[in-house]
Specification:
With 112 residues, this protein is mainly β. It has one domain: Quinohemoprotein amine dehydrogenase alpha subunit, domain 2 (Lipocalin), CATH 2.40.128.120. The chain has one helix and nine strands, in the order H-E-E-E-E-E-E-E-E-E. It starts with a helix and ends with a strand. The N terminus is likely disordered.
């Protein structure tokens, strides 16, 4: 039983580790605004951290969580907070975001 639990835990950690890395992100809001950014995701002893680099701004992300092939996080900005939910398949990321003002949009990403 212990071996099964350890094997399962190891498999989950290895699978989740595929999320870590640098991602070129392209987003588009429902009103047509487009943004390109670099997302850096890392896992340190079970804790996920990420930053978003947009032009000259480096934004530490909040509530970063990884479960299997899914990542969620919050992007705090002066205009409000964006909540992002994305799925990862190999070196591709696809997701959606919602802002506190109700603005919605899509994003795609490619691992660098």
């Amino acid at each position: 039983m212990k071996l099964l639990m350890l094997t399962t835990l190891f498999a989950l950690v290895m699978y989740a580790a595929e999320v870590a890395g640098k991602w070129e992100i392209r987003s588009q809001s429902s009103d047509g605004q487009k943004i390109t950014a670099l997302l850096e995701v890392r896992e340190d002893w079970g804790t996920w951290n990420a930053v978003l680099l947009v032009e000259d701004d480096k934004i530490p992300l909040k509530a970063v969580a990884v479960e299997g092939d899914k990542i969620t996080f919050q992007v705090p900005t002066e205009e409000g907070t964006y909540t992002v939910k994305a799925s990862i398949k190999g070196d591709q990321m696809d997701g959606i975001f919602t802002a506190t003002d109700g603005t919605k949009g899509t994003l795609t990403g490619k691992r660098q």
